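Predict structure. Chain length: 238.
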Amino acid sequence: MNKSKRIITPNNSIITAILVDGSFFLKRYRQVFRNGKNHTPDTIVENFYRMVHKHVANEYLYRILFYDCMPYLKKRHNPITKKVIDFSKTTQATNRLQFFEELKKKRKVALRLGHLMDSKDWVIHPQQTKDLLSGKISVSDLQESNVKFDLKQKGVDIKIGLDIASLAYKKLVHKIILISGDSDFVPAAKLARREGIDFILDPMRNPIDPSLHEHIDGLKTTCPNPFQKDTKQYEYIE
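Prediction complete.
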């Protein structure tokens, strides 16, 4: 047991930091919240804020750190139709920007933004790739929606890891709650636990590899259960 000194709050309460993998949260949100696919950015932010605060209860909230990337805002030619696609005007881009603006208004929320790596390549969706390889369709059968521009997040995982290490080494919190479904956090979680931090994982009801239990201090989910008919108890906006 690590016996390093910890910070003391006036009421001697537990200090908790909540770290959120933004792309994971938004993907799971559409699956676990009723009508989540149709929610506006401000509704998503309200539900997010209520969800994370259910983790804190009577504890002292240090900060909510939200990790994501700015949307892609450039123009590219679709290889199927040769049309120019202005990504800055897509619903996905405008909604993400509005989501960030609403998030900034919330108390104790800090955005940690990485960047999207532009590979300048388009890729065929997996189902159409299978159909091409099996001979069910030919290249001439591909539609505009069958391809997507290849973008990869950069800098998000390292920011999460660095913040976990900083919180642990500086003894800023007693507990870290990570909302994520990625096992890349394991090295940082092990470091935090060695420093005496209580490390909790919230996978938003997404199944995790059983081996991950070895590297965390517990699982806790505060999002609604999509298989439970009565969701009123969660006080979420639909």
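Summary: The mean pLDDT is 88.
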